[in-house]
Specification:
This protein is an alpha+beta fold and about 160 residues long. It has 2 domains: about 30 residues, no CATH class; about 90 residues, no CATH class. It is built from 5 helices and 5 strands, in the order ββββααααβα. Strands 4-1-5 form a 3-stranded antiparallel beta sheet. It has a two-stranded antiparallel sheet with strand order 2-3. A hairpin with a 2-residue loop joins strand 2 and strand 3. It starts with a strand and ends in a 5-residue tail after the last helix. The protein binds zinc ion (ZN). Zinc ion binds next to loops.
Length: about 160
C-alpha cells in the first residue's frame, strides 16, 4: 500500500502565495514524490496530535491570563514581547507543540500501544490517502494470519 502525501494529496506540487501571487512549487513535504513512507505518515499524525493538544493548552492559558485581576492579559504580554498578538499566539502554540511531541516520543518508548491508541483517536488515519494494490496483484494466494496473534505483535516483551 502506498500513502499519498497529505500536503499535496499526491499532486507533487503545491500552490503557495508569494508577493500576493499564487505560484506552483514542488511539494516540500514529500520532496515532490507525491507519496510518503508509513513512518513519515505516523510522524505526521503524531505532530497533528501534538498540535491539537498544544492549541488547547494555549487557549486555556490565554483565557487564564485574560481573567487575571491585574489586567495584564494575553495581548499585554504579546505587546511586551514586541509581537503582534497572532504571532505571539502562533509562537506559543509552536513551543507547546514541541514540548508535547517530546513528551509523546518519550512515552512511546515504554507505552507504544497507549500512544498508538491516542494517535488513532486524536489524529485518525485518512483513508482517502491510501492507494491500495490493484486487484490483479492478487495472483499470489493470500495467506490468512490467525487473528489473535496480530494484536500482540508489537509488544516488546
Ligand atoms: Zn507532497
Amino acid at each position: 500500500m502506498k500513502i499519498k502525501c497529505p500536503q499535496c494529496r499526491g499532486e507533487r506540487t503545491q500552490t503557495i502565495e508569494e508577493d500576493g501571487r499564487r505560484i506552483q512549487d514542488d511539494c516540500f513535504h514529500c520532496q515532490a514524490e507525491g507519496f510518503i513512507s508509513e513512518e513519515k505518515y505516523l510522524a505526521d499524525r503524531m505532530l497533528a496530535m501534538a498540535n491539537l493538544l498544544a492549541c488547547d493548552v494555549v487557549e486555556r492559558h490565554k483565557r487564564l491570563e485574560n481573567s487575571r485581576e491585574d489586567g495584564e492579559g494575553w495581548a499585554f504580554h504579546a505587546a511586551e514581547s514586541g509581537m503582534p498578538e497572532a504571532d505571539y499566539t502562533f509562537a506559543a502554540v509552536a513551543d507547546e507543540q514541541q514540548r508535547t511531541l517530546v513528551l509523546f516520543q518519550k512515552l512511546d518508548q515504554g507505552c507504544h500501544e497507549l500512544v498508538m491508541s491516542l494517535v488513532d483517536r486524536l489524529a485518525p488515519e485518512d483513508e482517502s490517502l491510501f492507494v491500495r494494490d490493484k486487484p490483479e496483484d492478487k495472483t499470489l494466494p493470500l495467506k490468512e494470519e490467525p487473528e489473535e496473534s496480530e494484536e500482540y505483535d508489537d509488544i516488546p516483551f
